[in-house]
């Protein structure tokens, strides 16, 4: 089918590169970023001097000038940053696509690198951060006096309401973790390589913030990931099979907060992800039935279930049964997080998930399902977010 968006099919991801994923990198975040960028360019068969655009997160500590200087890039004609933590992941690619499509840049690198285990630990939330006078901090001030100071605590509220409305259980969340860890166990790049878990392991793991157990929560990772985006035409002449970008969208929902959107009429869904999904399908001309695999942002297992529903893979409240029926396995209807996800491979704010989407299109995933023509990738949930549909060249 032909998409209605002027951007659909105009650009492709031509290169992916990453550092190792660890708990103590032993080097600076800038070095991690540069290593990932150089690896991605090598994968694409391009040189640093070819790059004229960079996109990253507002949370990134490595500025464009330092990445450019330390990798040997020259003049840049485009640089952009996306906010809202992990919600930015797929939006970095959207920015790159728009730059390439409009001629603002020809070769754009998206990157994210941090020492998130040995350095600043995002899992601590607001707990140990210095006070400031921003509007965001003022909004959090309504939560922290009640013990809502960490991401796990924020998500626990949504998870409890979802369980109440749809009869989901901790075991239903656990099945997401089991699938992720099963896939990670086959992935030599994953932190939890050769370490699968059972549902019993999940159910016996300690509480973090009820109803979230330890194995419902993503890990903290040191590492870097980069992606190279060029025009679809140029990508055909580069070494790797292109992952053509069929759809790229952002979504900020009504009455949106940062992981604490508790004032909506219902809090058991993710309306901003529904907004992203509608745009992706409209842009690409595809439907949920056309998606062969998915990389769903899994920083906390409960938020995978409403993603499946918002994106049209099952009805509202039906995700628990969709998962229990084995649909997320490599031989199932929608193989999910074939790299192991953020629970199993690494937590790189979703950028490593985009790289796995590219591998699925190339046919090189360590858990490669048969017949993947289109893969859908999502970014962070609970925040303004983004998504991609990647496809093979027709």
Q: Which geometry do the CA atoms define?
A: globular
Low-pLDDT residue spans:
none
The sequence of SSEs as H and E is: EHEHEHEHHHHEEEHEHEHHHHEE
Tally of DSSP helical segments: 13
With strands numbered from the N-terminus, the spatial order across the biggest sheet is: 3-2-4-7-1-8-11-10-9
Mean of residue pLDDT values: 95
> Which range best describes the helical content: under 10%, 10-25%, 25-40%, 40-55%, 55-70% or over 70%?
25-40%
Q: What is the CA-based Rg, rounded? A: 19 Å
Largest sheet: 9 strands, mixed
Structural class estimated from helices and strands: alpha/beta
Polypeptide structure, described:
With 394 residues, the chain is α/β, with parallel strands linked by helices. Helices cover 32% and strands 16% of the residues. The chain has 13 helices and eleven strands. The strands form two sheets. A nine-stranded mixed sheet has the order 3-2-4-7-1-8-11-10-9. Strands 5-6 form a two-stranded antiparallel ribbon. Helix 1 crosses helix 2.
Write the layout of secondary structure elements.
Layout: E1 11-18, H1 29-44, E2 53-57, H2 64-71, E3 78-82, H3 89-102, E4 108-115, H4 135-140, H5 151-166, H6 170-184, H7 199-204, E5 207-209, E6 212-213, E7 222-231, H8 232-235, E8 243-251, H9 271-284, E9 293-295, H10 304-310, H11 319-324, H12 341-344, H13 351-362, E10 374-378, E11 385-391
Parallel strand pairs: 2-3, 2-4, 9-10
Antiparallel strand pairs: 1-7, 1-8, 4-7, 5-6, 8-11, 10-11
């Amino acid at each position: 089918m032909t998409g209605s968006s002027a951007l659909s099919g105009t650009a492709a991801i031509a290169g992916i590169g990453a550092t190792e994923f660890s708990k103590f990198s032993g080097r600076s975040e800038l070095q991690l970023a540069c290593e990932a960028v150089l690896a991605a360019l090598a994968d694409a068969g391009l040189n640093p001097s070819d790059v004229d655009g960079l996109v990253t997160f507002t949370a990134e500590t490595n500025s464009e000038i330092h990445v450019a200087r330390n990798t040997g890039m020259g003049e840049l004609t485009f640089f952009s940053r996306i906010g809202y933590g992990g919600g930015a992941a797929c939006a970095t690619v959207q920015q790159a696509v728009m730059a390439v499509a409009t001629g603002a840049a020809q070769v754009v690198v998206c990157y994210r690198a941090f020492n998130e285990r040995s350095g600043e630990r995002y899992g601590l939330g607001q707990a140990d951060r210095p006070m400031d006078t921003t509007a965001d901090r003022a909004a959090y001030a309504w939560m922290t006096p009640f013990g809502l100071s960490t991401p796990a605590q924020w998500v626990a509220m949504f998870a409890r309401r979802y369980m109440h409305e749809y009869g989901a259980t901790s075991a239903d969340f656990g099945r997401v973790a089991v699938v992720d860890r099963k896939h990670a166990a086959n992935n030599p790049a994953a932190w939890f390589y050769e370490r699968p878990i059972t549902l019993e392991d999940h159910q016996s793991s300690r509480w973090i913030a009820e109803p979230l157990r330890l194995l419902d929560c993503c890990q903290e990772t040191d590492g870097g990931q980069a992606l190279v985006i060029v025009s679809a035409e140029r990508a055909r002449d580069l070494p790797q099979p292109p992952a053509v970008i069929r759809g790229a969208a952002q979504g900020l929902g009504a009455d949106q907060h940062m992981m604490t959107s508790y004032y909506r009429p219902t809090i058991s869904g993710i309306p901003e992800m529904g907004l992203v999904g509608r745009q992706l399908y409209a842009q690409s001309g595809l439907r949920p039935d056309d998606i062969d695999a998915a990389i769903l942002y899994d920083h906390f297992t409960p938020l995978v279930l409403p993603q499946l529903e918002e994106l049209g893979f099952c009805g509202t409240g039906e995700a628990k049964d969709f998962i229990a029926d084995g649909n997320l396995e490599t031989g199932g209807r929608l193989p999910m997080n074939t790299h192991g996800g953020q629970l199993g491979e690494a937590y790189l704010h979703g950028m490593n998930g985009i790289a796995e989407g590219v591998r699925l299109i190339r046919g090189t995933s360590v858990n490669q399902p048969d017949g993947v023509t289109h893969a859908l990738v999502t970014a962070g949930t609970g925040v303004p977010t983004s998504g991609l549909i990647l496809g093979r060249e027709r």
